[in-house]
């Protein structure tokens, strides 16, 4: 698990290799990840947007951005935690992801970015 804190917001990431999948006669390695967002600040914040860089050793870097996460824009009061699961398909058995969330402080209306630490996507067989 990897962790990073920005302005009192702690991001923790756990990855899971889920096996292979075929799409349109192409082999993909399937990875899942679970992200926990902890508000350790004294302010109420809302996650509004996400930005990802997905690195695949056999492919170009993919950029993914958009509103919220998994269709939600969670609000976190002080000491609240929000957890969600998602995933990605890579053409290689080795990759990585990193990015940031855009959040707004609902007390001051300040918008800020919260770093998502770089996390590795590696199959179990690659590790041996």
Keywords:
single chain, 128 residues, mainly beta, Immunoglobulin-like, five-stranded antiparallel sheet, four-stranded antiparallel sheet, 1 helix, 69% strand
Task: Tell me what the structure shows.
- This protein has 128 residues and is mainly beta.
- The chain has one domain (2-127): ApaG domain (Immunoglobulin-like, Sandwich), CATH 2.60.40.1470.
- It is 3% helix and 69% strand.
- It has one helix at residues 124-127, and strands at residues 2-6, 9-23, 26-39, 45-56, 62-67, 75-76, 81-90, 94-105, 111-122.
- The strands form two sheets. Strands 4, 5, 6, 8 and 9 form a five-stranded antiparallel sheet that branches. A four-stranded antiparallel sheet has the order 1-2-3-7, with no helix packed on it.
- Strand 2 (9-23) and strand 3 (26-39) form a beta hairpin.
- The longest helix is centred in the last third of the chain and has 4 residues, at 124-127.
- It is elongated, with a radius of gyration of 16 Å.
- The model has no long low-confidence stretch (mean pLDDT 95).
């Amino acid at each position: 698990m990897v962790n990073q804190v920005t302005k009192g917001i702690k991001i923790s990431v756990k990855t899971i290799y889920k096996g292979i999948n075929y799409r349109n006669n192409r082999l993909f390695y399937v990875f899942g990840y679970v992200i926990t967002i902890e508000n350790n600040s004294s302010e109420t914040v809302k996650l509004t947007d996400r930005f990802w860089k997905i690195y695949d050793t056999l492919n170009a870097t993919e950029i993914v951005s958009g509103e919220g996460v998994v269709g939600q824009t969670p609000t976190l009061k002080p000491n609240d935690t929000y957890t969600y699961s998602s995933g990605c398909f890579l053409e290689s058995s080795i990759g990585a992801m990193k990015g940031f969330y855009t959040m707004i402080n609902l007390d001051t209306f300040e918008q800020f970015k919260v770093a998502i630490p770089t996390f590795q996507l590696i199959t179990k067989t690659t590790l041996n």
